[in-house]
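Colleagues,

For the teaching module next term, I've prepared a clean inverse folding example: a structure given as tokens, and then the sequence designed for it. I'd like students to try predicting residues themselves before seeing the answer, so please don't circulate the second half yet.
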């Protein structure tokens, strides 16, 4: 069975269980303050364990499955502003250790009919201007994985051999998000996200290097989602909340409780932006 046939089989299973067609894919981190991202207008549908959709079961994914056998991802159906959504709850760094599974999920959403993907993730500021709790808009990213999910044979049913990544994050969606933030009277900062596989804290030298490379903030994972979505012809909107501001020598430090409070407030604002954007898609 080819990868496309495997995804079609998974899509058929979800269509039989989810009452609404999928128009939108939303990817959020599992746990922490990101759980507040979904607004009051969100109607949740059925939760599906990813194990049910994996070709050949979890053992069929070999090295991509953690040693404890548990997959840090769940799928949910739902509605926002009357639009059917597929929600992927992904653990931080998921895209690094389970990149082939991330590819599977994005392509699955596309086969189900999704034309747009929104990513909501926690980020860490690299520039002094990025304060904890601020909502940020991703203009572009720097992929620091050292690999790419499109390496290998290409199936034209998914997309072209060499997709154009000049504008990875849709300009129209970014303008819409900016307009929504302006209407709500808060600042939505735009910048470049450096994306690592995660797993270990970065060193000061690494942070300095990424700043010199043009990055404004740092996140774990999620670049592969954007690459695969672009390959499939989906529009992508990247949103985030600064959960850790840069440490500046000589400046007052922010306590963990203060940072958590600011982050939760930021994700609530992000949820408002998300809902308003979906209303206007």
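(Answer key — instructors only)
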């Amino acid at each position: 069975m080819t990868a496309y046939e495997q995804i079609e089989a998974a899509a058929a299973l979800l269509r039989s269980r989810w009452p609404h067609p999928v128009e939108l894919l939303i990817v959020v981190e599992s746990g922490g303050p990101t759980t507040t991202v979904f607004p009051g207008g969100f109607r949740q549908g059925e939760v599906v364990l990813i194990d049910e959709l994996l070709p050949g079961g979890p053992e069929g994914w070999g090295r991509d499955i953690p040693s404890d056998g548990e997959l840090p991802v769940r799928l949910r159906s739902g509605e926002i502003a009357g639009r059917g959504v597929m929600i992927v709850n992904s653990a931080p760094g998921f895209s690094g250790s389970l990149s082939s599974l991330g590819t599977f999920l994005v392509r699955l959403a596309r086969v189900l009919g999704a034309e747009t993907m929104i990513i909501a993730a926690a980020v860490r500021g690299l520039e002094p201007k990025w304060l904890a709790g601020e909502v940020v808009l991703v203009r572009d990213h720097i992929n620091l994985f050292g690999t790419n999910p499109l390496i290998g044979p290409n199936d034209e049913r998914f997309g072209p051999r060499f997709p154009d990544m000049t504008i990875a994050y849709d300009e129209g969606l970014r303008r819409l998000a900016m307009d929504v933030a302006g209407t709500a009277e808060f600042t939505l900062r735009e910048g470049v996200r450096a994306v690592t596989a995660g797993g270990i804290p970065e060193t000061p030298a690494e942070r300095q290097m990424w700043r010199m490379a043009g990055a404004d903030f740092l996140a774990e994972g999620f670049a592969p989602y954007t690459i695969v979505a672009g390959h499939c012809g989906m529009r992508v909107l990247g949103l985030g909340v600064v959960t850790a501001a840069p440490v500046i020598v000589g400046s007052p430090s922010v306590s963990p409780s203060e940072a958590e409070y600011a982050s939760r407030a930021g994700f609530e604002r992000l949820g408002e932006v998300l809902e308003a954007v979906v209303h206007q898609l």
